[in-house]
Amino acid sequence: MRTLISSAFVSLDGVVEAPGGEPGYRNSGWTFKDIEFLPEAYEIKGREQKEATAMLLGRTSYESFSAVWPDMEDFADYKVMPKYVVSTTLTEDKLVSNWGETTILRSLDDVAALKETEGGPIIVHGSASLNRSLSDAGLIDRYHLLVFPLLLGAGKRLFSAADKDTQKLKLVEHEAYANGLQLNVFDVVR
Predict the structure, then answer these.
(1) pLDDT tens-place string over residues 7-44
(2) Which of 120, 112, 153, 155 is nearest to 136 (CA)?
(3) Could you tell me if 17 and 155 are in contact, meaning their C-beta atoms sit under 8 angstroms apart?
């Protein structure tokens, strides 16, 4: 079974919305405003590209990332990696042609089937709604959380407010950085 990894920039109060400056959110771009940039705090991002063998995205994140990531040197390893987009509305004609093989999945059952295939880890970037659904369905195996020392208040959250059984996590890696960022890597305990 393939490992499904959720990778997120998250505020201390759980917000994941518009970390890179996406329009429409009051605190858009919060990952680089008032936070000193320390390259070592982002080492996990390079490691993710080297270790992942596929990327899973929701439609909104796919549309945002596919407009810029294919031409960014920082994300070169993702260009050739197979991508899967979970969407009930996206059509083949809306897929970009310069970002490698992309497959549309229509349901969480399709994601569960993908996890059963041969291959290495699958990484999820962005995709707040998809992350909540994957977590609620018990499909996420690991979390890579880069926690920012900010309280943003309103905004899309990484985790849903669904009433569900406790899900235990095991901290397998952690680091604190001089700029206040914290890396927390958790495995989901089954």
Answers:
(1) 999 999 999 999 998 889 999 999 999 899 999 999 99
(2) 112
(3) yes
Maximum CA pair distance of the chain?
A: 46
> In 23-165, which ranges are continuous DSSP H helix?
43-51, 59-66, 76-79, 108-115, 128-136
> Cα dist. 118→52, 54, 58, 124, 178 in Å?
13, 11, 22, 18, 40
Contacts of 21 (CB under 8 A, 6+ apart): 28, 29, 32
The residue length of the chain stands at 190
| pLDDT score at 34 | 85
Q: Which residues contact 134 (CB under 8 A, 6 or more apart)?
A: 4, 6, 108, 111, 124, 140
Q: How far apart are CA 170 and CA 157, in angstroms?
A: 21
* Identity of the amino acid at 89: T
User: Helices then strands (H, E): number in the chain?
Assistant: 5, 8
**3-state class of 26 per DSSP?**
coil
Say how many C-beta atoms besides its own lie within 10 A of residue 68's C-beta.
Answer: 10
Condensed to tens digits (0 to 9), the pLDDT of residues 95-116 reads 999 999 999 999 999 999 999 9
Whole-number Å distance between alpha carbons of 68 and 74: 11
Whether the Cβ atoms of residue 140 and residue 134 lie closer than 8 Å to each other: yes
Give the Cα separation of 51 and 46 in Å (integer): 9
